[in-house]
Amino acid sequence: MLPPMQDGRPLHPGIELPPQLGKASFKRKVEFLAGRHCADQAIQRLAPQPLPDIPITAAGLPSWPDGIVGSITHAGRFVSAAVALRKDAIGIGIDCESRMTRNVALEIATLVATPSELAAAMAQTRLDENDALTLLFSAKEAVFKCLYPLTGLFFTFLDVEVVVAGTAPCRFTARVPAAYLPHRPPAAGLSGAFGLDGSYCHTGIALVV
User: Fold this and answer.
1) In a 3-state reduction of DSSP, which class is residue 199?
2) Which terminus of the chain is more exposed, N or C, with fewer CB under 10 A?
3) pTM as predicted
4) Given the DSSP bridges, would you call strands 170-175 and 161-167 parallel, antiparallel or unpaired?
5) How far apart are CA 43 and CA 209, in angstroms?
């Protein structure tokens, strides 16, 4: 991730900060500009068009151009975006999280997953508790980013159950109440993928047509 100005020049020309970020921190401004830059690059590869405007909704999420669905994520110095044509996908959610320290994991564990859910994720992946909890946290964030634009409904981490299939391939299934999963049978769930590198946990999920 880079600062919004470099050598006195805008790093991402054509991308403007929205008024609601006028008093935001420097970090938040950098995250916005870098995220929109990634989104623009992804859209150009998918469906080349004039630089699209991607404003912020009242819920703080990107408002995608007509015919496009997508998701943006950032953590630390990492930022990325994923997009798809609306005719191919109903929703997309991606998330990146810095791998949790032990102190953070202990503080939020009961808010993120049930003990049995966490134990199952550890057994399937052979990750330690900190990394397994990071994975579950990130997967549930990706599920929210995918589903909230479709329903406008908020839900908690404990409303979502994530079942990790293993690390070869790195897949998971998310089960959510029927109200949060439009156009699917309640038992169908959502299928996603994950990966961990030296600093981050990455998750992604798509609701295809």
Assistant:
1) coil
2) C
3) 0.89
4) antiparallel
5) 19
